[in-house]
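Build the 3D complex.
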Amino acid sequence: MQKVQEIDYLVLTGLADESTPLELAQLSRKIGLDQAKVSAVFVTRQGAELQVEEKPYLELSIGKKAKEWGDVLPERKIVQTLDSAGAALSIPEIAEKSGLPSKDVGGSLKVLRDKGWVEQKGKSLELTADGKAAAAAPPGPDEQIFAAIAAVENYITDRELKERGLPVEEALQLFEARKGVLDVRERVERFATLSDAGKQMVDSGIAPVKEVNLLTPEMLKDGSWREVEFRPYDVTAAAEAAHPGKIHPLVSVFEKTRRVFLEMGFEETESGYVESSFWDFDALFQPQDHPARDMQDTFYVSNPPRTRLPDEELVRRVKDTHEGNGDCQSVGWRYKWSRELSEKTVLRTHTTASTVRALAANPQGPRKVFCVGPVFRRETVDYKHLPVFHQVDGIIIDEKATFANLLGTLEAFYRKMGFSKFQFRPAFFPYTEPSVEVFVWSDKKSDWVEMGGAGMFRPEVTEPLGCTSPVLAWGLGLERLAMFTYDLGSIGELYRARLSWLKGVDLCRL
Amino acid sequence: MPVIGIPVDMLNERIETKLEPDDMVVKLQQLGCDVEGYATLQRFGCETCGFLMEITETENPPVTCTACGEDFKENPGQISERGTSEVIRMELLAVRPDMFDPAGLARTLRGYLGEFVGPVNYQLGKPTITVTAEIGLMDQESANYRPIRCAVVRNVKLDDDRIKVLMKLQENLHWAMGRDRKRASIGVYDLATFRPEKGLRYRLVGPEEIQFVPLGKKTESTPKKVLEEHPKGVAYAHLLETKEKYPLLAAARADGSEMVMALIPIINSEDTKVTQKSEDLFIDVTGLDDRLVDKILNTILTSILELCPEASGEKVAIQVEGGEGFESPDLSPQEVEFDTSLPARRIGIEVDSDGVKLLLKKMGHGLAEGGNGKVTVQVPAYRNDILHPVDLVEDVAIAYGYHNIVPSLVPTFTVGEETPRSTVMNRVRQALAGHGFLEVLTLILSNEADQFEKLGRKDGAEHVVLAHPISQDQTLIRTSILPGLLDTFSVNTDQPLPQRIFEVGRISKLDSSEEVGAREHLRVAAAIIGSRVDFAEIKAQAESLIRELGLSGDYDCQALTTEHEYFGTFIPGRGAAIGKNGKDWLVFGELSPQVLENFGLGYPAAVLEMNLEVLLN
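Done.
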């Protein structure tokens, strides 16, 4: 016993006892299956178990224009009216006498001329000889067809009309030039019959298998899943996009940065956003009249306006160093250092404030320390600058540390971030000497791009803090790295982000 | 920092190795110059004062003269086109004013390329001119203290280019070292326009005491009028705001009458201006600090001598009225004791004592042997950046070539460790991302409206306030992360719902027990917005967080009462706090429709905010 889908079973058996091909609609009614499903079986089994023949036909119904005409074409009413009047009549007169709306009279002028039934004489229409003859003659093919179609409620097929002996072809030709009078739709009837293969299949025995959508726990329980087939799906159809919760792409950059430094043996440190000028600038030997300390460039805080300072001994050593009287052989800045200025509260301008605090807390090497965090600068906002951005600062305290090791560390970091070509150029920062700027090659820009600054802390920085080893230090911008990694046009895309962008950044980008 | 254009030709003229622009750029970068590229510049000259201005292809021609302030809109005949030049555009290196101009830059390049090693010996002739200075200007204790230093340059041959270089140099030194003239100013004059043998006077005058024709003008004005009407006067009047008397430099004319050379630091006189015909120049530098004034004079004098190699320098005698006299300038080098083994150690390269000496000489320093591997480095008088021997180590590294240093890693092994805060942040991220929340980052700076009024939250005046905010949207450090989340929703109103976001980060609060007067606190906030958002859902999230962060056990969950800081944030009766012993760990609930409206949101939302410090103490 061959198992076939239920609908196939119904169609095949439904045709098995028919001697002549059966039309689809009729078959549907016979077997109680809706036409769409029967059609589907025709399609799948066509050429195999079924022979399907398509027979086109026309569906004819009354067109929009002719809805009010009843079952008589207006030109007939017009010639009849003219005939009884026995004279030429104007259009309004014709309309009045015939009962037709004047627009239909006017609209019939063309067909009246085409048929040769009427001549226009000034504003009046006069019956021609042919017209007079036509008035007495029986209805033409178009009139017959029109009447027949008007008689049914919806539509009638050309086949049915032909069966009645009506001149369908002629009429349709005549109607071709008259738009809107008839509504003609082309249809196809499909007639199916069992092929030899089909007959053989039915004779050898077939049984229907039920097709279902869902596998239910009940089917599993009672084993009825064995009796059914599951409707196959179009596996290429689109499924709704699903997005996982994720960390922010910029945070991925922070985390990767942190991981790289942790991998290289660094301890993480952090400090506050609110900082004293002492730690943000003075301990780093940045002179008190340095332009970066101007209120144009740094966010000063009005509440709390002043900070306390660390222990007096340290403050004194920093003061002496600035004034050139320190222990470290430096001529200093040779000005009068102001304690008041160092107490001014700021929002930290770099994470170097954090690493220098860490250095002060324990100046004894060997140590490697890093900090990732936000910094604040009072800069004009544009596509690559915001007042808040993130840096990673790092220091290596080690008596064996050299400038060459600094370059090596920077290279190691950027290599892990995906860059392979580097350039180091001399730079200047108040707290490091020698200083360097690290550039990476961007294929996209076909140019070297600056990524951050670094150097060895000046003795003016390390010695007041009690550190006798060389200290390597660097501060690198992380938004810059992110803009590279994610190919962003503007830094604003990271903050006030579009959720569609956040969803779209896949996990493998970094 | 300003960007200058260094004509490639001018550089190549002064060095032996002719360099192609690309190569020139590389060499300059190796010296630490911030090169932006090279460009063809269009040159314009001011017919009034002779100043040459250059603009890039994308800029518009100047509307006023940068030197004398002549208005070209009013007097279009006073500006003329003077051709084009190929220049290398670079940002001024603030610590190397001796490299602000092509001649000074060429001097450094010559040394770097090994064409001329060792210091340049600028021979200065004995003084023939005396400047008498009023004691009020030369006394450190005086309120009008403004020390002066001067020099003379004889036999210069000036053309358009050289005048332009000179004026640009003066302008850049004004800006960089003089801090836009606040700390020092420079004057350059044509010696032929006055009778120097009668001596110069440097004194204080009242605002209406004298008259002179300022540069660029044709009629005389008093100093007061100059400050009120002359473009440079208007621009720099603030420098003399607090002064009752103004510094003036004057000379004698042929007929013995006084001729004003400059109202300091505002403007020179028209009579003494330098033109192409000038053969001898007088230079003065005045300022608030004698060391700075010395350095500026040394720089501009030696740069002019480099620019005009045919010229020679001459000292000027300065006599303080009723006080000491001295000669200016003093080009003696700064002496620094240096251990030649330091560079190898600090830089991590192999270079012996002789190698170090050669490298120092290539950077223009002189050397005197000291024995025991120590030398005395004689730093040229125009260098202002050598504060400590490590500054010389950097010069050695630059001469050696940073590109020649082989990078390596520190040989010491250390063990890394992350902060507890980072550990907590990542756990929170994992928990919330696991629930399908997307992490967002919002600005740490916020404003009162967003933090309090719009959020329906009571202002406890615990926030850190900025003194000079850059915009009214950013006046304080946030004390809640919620407004940032709601703002994120407001820029995503076209995106599908529901939306679930979170942020973990720090807020700041005033704290007098802290050295800096404030302290950061770690927080996390999460928010859900959608057609159907309810209390049960956000409570489930709150409890999930508490559980995943290891805080389960006894805790209280209480409805927010009217006195609570966040009462107005939530629908009354639908806001709650979870905590223990009277301390809140987190608040959560359904957002009040007023808050939704305030943030421009059209769907219900539920939020939570947790203080993560409870895990860190």
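The first strand of chain B starts at residue 3 and ends at 7.
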